[in-house]
Amino acid sequence: MKPTLVTGATGFVGWHVARKLMERGHRVRALVRASSRLRELEAEAVTGDLRDPESLKRAVEGCGLVFHVAADYRLWVRDKREMYRSNVEGTRNLLEAARVAGVERVVYTSTVGCIGIPKGGEGNELTPVGLADMKGAYKRSKYLAEEAARQFASEGFPVVIVNPTAPVGDHDVKPTPTGKIIVDYVKGDMPAYIDTGLNLVDVRDVAEGHLLAAERGRPGERYILGCQNLTLQEILERLAQICGRKAPSWRIPYGVAYAAGALSTGWAWFTGRPPRAPLDAVRMAKKRMFASHAKATLELGYSPGPVEEALARAVGWFCSNGYVTQ
Predict the structure, then answer these.
(1) Which backbone phi and psi does 226 adopt, to 5 degrees?
(2) 8 Å CB contact between 185 and 239
(3) DSSP letters spanning 136-151
(4) How far is it, in rounded angstroms, from Cα 24 to Cα 137?
(5) Cys-Cys crosslink for 129: which of 116, 283, 304, 322, Cβ 3.0 to 4.6 Å?
(6) Mean pLDDT in consecutive groups of 10 residues from the start of the chain, 326 residues
(7) For the chain, first and last CA: distance in Å?
(8) What 3-state class would DSSP assign to 161?
């Protein structure tokens, strides 16, 4: 069997994709930066960087499948050019290396942030959206990277796009912004909430969706990998049940949250330290990111389960790995 390359296996979704592949008998090769390391995965590690085309040629050599999960996922960065180099140019570099190497199929991990969300409704893969709708460097860079993936597909290279919503579960090492909500709540650092909403999904279901996309997805198509549309208040109420404590009852007006985000981000530019409340995150929160995974269910056979178990698993993992001091 040819090896399967996974980028981002040192991160959250990528770790679960690699783990799922190994459970299915794949020989997994993981692209790992010199400054990173694999955790709890007995995969072949290949040192490289998305910004280094020569290292990508070595990484894809002999591979049959590539799962490009890695991304620079930050809602504040001092030098935005670095994000574009990793997310946009890095994606082009990897896809070109894979095409030259004769890789049979690539699954590219985008984000629900690139999906159009109608006011008061839920988005799907066909909801109109453009670059002007993307708030912040992260969303803009991922949108442009997705455009690059579609361009390769239009030229005959089999690239399938998946758009995870907000995954939750174990091994959220960074953690992601959604994972940070869980950590902050468990630590008692969330006395209030804002009126927003997310589509939560078990990260293990997202990993399964990646494998289904590799097996059944149509090149050039995008597939939302999500599960439950929940307001932030509803998410906190579920965490309250898991943790046995009250959910916050005070809702912060958007204007207050925006002002706090502006001050926090301004201070970050002065200190060089990431803001506690990035302004881009506040801007994103103005819209409820509700979405439908009906297309993935219809075409891929994707069938996610309820998110309560994943939330409980996330709480347990954060507590047992030092993110929360009991």
Answers:
(1) -135, -165
(2) yes
(3) HHHHHHHHHHHHHHHH
(4) 36
(5) 116
(6) 96 98 97 90 95 97 98 81 95 98 98 93 95 91 98 98 98 94 92 91 98 98 98 96 90 78 72 76 81 98 97 97 85
(7) 46
(8) strand
Q: Which of 65, 72, 12 is nearest to 39 (CA)?
A: 12
Residue 317 DSSP class: H
- 48 three-class SS: coil
Give how far Cα 302 sits from Cα of 22, 170, 210, Å: 19, 21, 10
DSSP SS3 for 34: coil
Asked if residue 177 lies in contact with residue 124, where contact means CB atoms within 8 angstroms, the answer is no
Rounded distance, CA 97 to CA 103, Å? 9
CA 229 to chain centre: 16
DSSP state, residue 169: S
Domains of the chain: 4-172+200-227 (3.40.50.720)
DSSP letter string over 174-211? S--HHHHHHHHHHHT--SEEES-EEEEEEHHHHHHHHH
